[in-house]
Amino acid sequence: MITAERHRTILQLIEQRKIIRIQELVDELNSSESTIRRDLSQLEQKNKLKRVHGGASILHQKKEEPSILEKSTKYLSEKVRIAKYAASLIKDNDCIFLDAGTTTNNMIPYINAKNITVVTNSPSHLKPLLEKEFHTYVLGGFVKPRTEALIGQMAVDTLRKFRFDKSFIGVNGIHLNYGYTTPDPEEATLKSVAMKMGQNVYVLADHTKFHEVTFTQIAELEDAVIITNEADEDTINDFKEKTSIEVIDK
Amino acid sequence: MITAERHRTILQLIEQRKIIRIQELVDELNSSESTIRRDLSQLEQKNKLKRVHGGASILHQKKEEPSILEKSTKYLSEKVRIAKYAASLIKDNDCIFLDAGTTTNNMIPYINAKNITVVTNSPSHLKPLLEKEFHTYVLGGFVKPRTEALIGQMAVDTLRKFRFDKSFIGVNGIHLNYGYTTPDPEEATLKSVAMKMGQNVYVLADHTKFHEVTFTQIAELEDAVIITNEADEDTINDFKEKTSIEVIDK
DNA sequence: AATTTTATGAATGATTTTGATTGGTTTTGA
DNA sequence: TCAAAACCAATCAAAATCATTCATAAAATT
């Protein structure tokens, strides 16, 4: 095995296991202890890992996936303004579906309607929803790690039992040709059904979502009203030909 | 296990359990007491945890008065000891049902089995469950305010689709004539179905639950194994005639 | 082909980590 | 309060890990 190949493999293994022992590497790479030691020294020199007694560990300040917290701080004010407007659409006695995601989560504190019923696929929405004393239902099914969203056949089955006055959906991409998209096919299915079950359907999206396309299509543009802000006029006009857009002013 | 690996694991465990005894770490990490002691000193030096007599505890970022845990002479409360024992019953690859409630919640950090699948009716269990990287399913349905437990027909319907190797149930009363009881009829129904779907059924109960009766019956005594501690001998013997009891010693 | 450069694995003694032991201190329970 | 039990800090020898050196083999350069 060539040096570069070993280095690549070592970094991969550390990425997966966070910490790895020298002896493990000796066994798995069929190299001598000396060689592995040299590899680790070199990789540490290049700041690719941290040497620890007995092995090596992943770098502490390794760039993490944009966590839910970071995501929510970056575009906070924009997302909050969108959320606040969306919340104002909810009227007394409405039955609504609230998709998982930070934007929809931001809606909850701003909902002023009374006696509403909320269905969600996000366990993280439950706490704020119950604080508002809404009638709250959650879908069942597999809990997707990291995002804590419910997905899968079981969640979809549960969802089909409901009809909503309004559905509020988050998406990852909005595109003139490809419509609304999201990376995870399972999530796409669920969002799609949630949209079908809603009398009025709203997609919440900040300006970064426009012209973006991700892996799976949820629905066509005309299947929902887009709620956004700060998009440029050309973009707005392009999309206005296909569906309604409600633009919140600054 | 190398030093860095142990340190990482120790911090993870403390994050989950808030407090941990040296002896627990000795057992779970297969290291000597001396080594664990050194680890804890080093981690305290780096301000990653707080040393307490007999073990270590998580740092309080919020200015709280010294927690009950630190002050308490027994580090593990009655409920935690029951939970820990129950957790030890779970084996690799098991599919289990975990009822809502604090005792069952306490089980989660102590589950050491790998590759298990957990179904729960408690959204509050999800965070610790996902931290452990279990395959996690949650029932759907109406979310009962205050307790955040899922109840109702829809939850029961979802539940019926599963079969469990083991079901862990919390109850409010255990009585020689009236069996297991709980105040809310809807909850009782769900617990009852969860018990039917389990190959092995365990009821977790501290000594205060014995001879108590509440509004709705969940099941007969013989439908479950009781896990408890510190109950007096007469009580234990009375119940032993009807079903199995596993008593945790001090 | 001859020479230089680079990579490898074994051997070395130095350094760090580990677990057992000792004796002192704190906690517990009566 | 007191004695037993549990816990702790300090020490030390054994084990594991480490940096260094050296000889050989492979690759690159001339």
Strand order of the largest sheet of chain A: 6-5-4-9-12-14-15
Structural class of chain A: alpha/beta
Instruction: Indicate the radius of gyration of chain A in whole angstroms.
Output: 23 Å
Mean pLDDT across the residues of chain A is 91
Number of helices of chain A: 10
- Please tell me what the overall shape of chain A is: elongated
Pattern of helices and strands of chain A: HEHHEEHHEHEHEEEHEEEHEEEHE
Biggest interface and residues each: A-B, 31 and 28 residues
Strand content of chain A: 15-25%
Commentary on this structure:
Chains A, B: Residues 3-58 form the HTH deoR-type domain. Chains A, B: Pfam families: DeoRC, HTH_DeoR. Chains A, B: InterPro entries: Carb_Metab_HTH_regulators, DeoR-like_C, DeoR_HTH, NagB/RpiA_transferase-like, Tscrpt_reg_HTH_DeoR_CS, WH-like_DNA-bd_sf, WH_DNA-bd_sf. Chains A, B: One of its GO terms (molecular function) is DNA-binding transcription factor activity. Chains A, B: This is DeoR family transcriptional regulator. 2 copies of one chain form a homodimer. The first copy, chain A, folds into 2 domains: 3-57, Winged helix-like DNA-binding domain superfamily/Winged helix DNA-binding domain (Arc Repressor Mutant, subunit A); 68-248, Rossmann fold, CATH 3.40.50.1360. Chain A has helices at residues 3-17, 22-29, 33-45, 68-74, 76-88, 102-107, 126-131, 153-160, 185-196, 233-240, and strands spanning 19-21, 50-52, 55-57, 95-98, 117-120, 135-138, 141-144, 149-151, 164-170, 173-175, 179-182, 198-204, 216-219, 225-229, 245-248. Chain A is an alpha/beta fold and 250 residues long. The first copy, chain A, is built from 10 helices and 15 strands. The model of chain A has no long low-confidence stretch (mean pLDDT 91). In chain A, helix 8 runs parallel beside helix 9 (185-196). Chain A is elongated, with a radius of gyration of 23 Å. Chain A is 38% helix and 25% strand. In chain A, the strands form 4 sheets. In chain A, strands 6-5-4-9-12-14-15 form a 7-stranded parallel beta sheet. Chain A has a 3-stranded antiparallel beta sheet with strand order 1-3-2. The longest helix of chain A is centred in the N-terminal third of the chain and has 15 residues, at 3-17. Chain A binds chain B through residues 18-19, 21, 52-55, 57, 123, 126-127, 129-130, 133, 135-143, 145-146, 148, 150, 154-155, 158, 161, and chain B through 2-5, 8, 123, 126-127, 129-130, 133, 135-143, 145-146, 148, 150, 154-155, 158, 161. Strand 7 (141-144) of chain A pairs antiparallel with strand 6 (135-138) of chain B, so a sheet runs across the interface. Chain B binds a DNA duplex (30 and 30 nucleotides) through helix 3.
